TrEMBL record:
Protein name: Ketol-acid reductoisomerase (NADP(+))
Positions contributing to Mg(2+) 2 binding: D190, E226, E230
Keywords: Amino-acid biosynthesis, Branched-chain amino acid biosynthesis, Magnesium, Metal-binding, NADP, Oxidoreductase
Family membership: Belongs to the ketol-acid reductoisomerase family.
Length: 329
């Protein structure tokens, strides 16, 4: 896979352009400030009563109401939560797009699932840092960058790739390395990863392990430490050295027990169900379910949040974490 670095990208591509960053949250503040410090002409677009308006101005950025920012921008990067992008795009951005502009995303959901259908005479691409916004910002100020993905959906100008790489350079991505993907690949792998492994899979693994110990009569506090608290240590080891690096660092007992029992917890049937989950992502069933859930006011999400808040692991965890002064509240 080709990786693009600083030498492959030219910030001069953006010299006479204005970049409008819509939203000033996790990703928005990092993109806007990094681009600004890279010498790019950046403005921020927000709704009038936005709670982020002052923050952006105090950081030295020019802030406009979303439609005005979209009109001023040659490049318009949408960095508000995905579920609100369609409405904001249709109301405030689309009417202000002109031929030759570029529309940018940091996640492919709305384009890939046809929630946003851009006009044909503009470039449409994605630049997605592979990390949360605060990391994208911090690492940049330390002189390095977070790796980015980019993807071209529509290349009306014939130069979308150069523009995408210049943008990635401006946020610091080419300092670390930038990889090319597609909207389809980024969206489908992102959804699958968070559902089957990162958010869904990991949480259920933790909660079920906790339940097994508590139901067997062990103290919930001890179960919490074993099944949830210590997970961070294991994940940190994997992050630094892969699965083998983690197994190298734990005891031989943990290594043998993990190898010989892990495959009994996650077996061929689990893999089959993961494949079903991937199919629902690929055929659009999940996207439609989620879009409807939003339209109906999130009834199922609210119910599941409530159920979790009543789970014993949450109650015990709250008490135990209050003993941990080093955790930011
Ligand atoms: P945030 O939730 O941090 O965005 C908050 C910003 O959006 C605020 O400026 C807020 O302003 C504004 N906003 C919220 N709701 C609305 C609304 N209804 N109308 C207008 N503005 C609104 O978003 P993220 O940074 O997490 O995500 C932005 C994009 O980046 C998404 O596409 C996401 O998938 C992608 N992404 C996110 C990553 C992350 O780590 N968070 C990683 C990679 C990609 P206000 O004060 O007005 O509410
Ligand atoms: Mg995601
Ligand atoms: Mg142990």
């Amino acid at each position: 896979m080709k990786t693009y670095y600083n030498g492959d990208a030219d910030l001069d591509v953006l010299k006479d352009k204005t970049v409008a960053v819509i939203g000033y949250g996790s990703q928005g503040h990092a993109h806007a400030l990094n681009l600004h410090e890279s010498g790019v002409n950046v403005i921020v677009g927000l709704r009038e009563d936005s709670s982020s308006w002052n923050d952006a101005e105090e950081a030295g950025l020019k802030v406009y109401e979303t439609s005005e920012a979209a009109a001023k921008g040659d490049l318009v990067m949408i960095l508000i939560p995905d579920q609100f992008q369609k409405a904001v795009y249709e109301e405030s951005i689309e009417p202000n797009l002109e031929e030759g502009n570029a529309l940018l995303f940091a996640h492919g959901f709305n384009i890939h699932f046809d929630q946003i259908v851009p006009p044909e005479n503009i470039d449409v691409f994605m630049v997605a840092p592979k990390g949360p916004g605060h990391l994208v910002r911090r690492v940049f100020t330390e002189g390095s960058g977070v790796p980015c993905l980019f993807a071209i959906y529509q290349d009306a100008s014939g130069t979308a790739k150069d523009t995408a790489l210049a943008y990635a350079k401006g946020v610091g991505g080419t300092r670390a390395g930038v990889l090319e993907t597609t909207f389809k690949e980024e969206t489908e792998t992102d959804l699958f990863g968070e559902q089957a492994v990162l958010c869904g899979g990991a949480s259920e693994l933790v909660a079920t392990g906790f339940e097994v110990l508590v139901e067997a009569g062990y103290q919930p506090e001890i179960a919490y430490f074993e099944c949830l608290h210590e997970l961070k240590l294991i994940v940190d080891l994997m992050y630094e050295g892969g699965i083998a690096g983690m197994y190298y660092s734990v005891s031989d007992t943990a290594e043998y027990g993990g190898f010989s029992r892990g495959t009994r917890v996650i077996d061929k049937d689990t893999k089959k169900r993961m494949k079903n989950i991937l199919e629902e992502v690929q055929n659009g069933d999940f996207a439609h379910e989620w879009i409807n859930e939003n339209k109906e006011g999130l009834p199922n999400l609210k119910k599941m949040r409530k159920d979790l808040s009543e789970h014993q692991i949450e109650k015990v965890g709250k008490e135990l974490r209050s003993m941990m002064d080093w955790i930011e509240k």
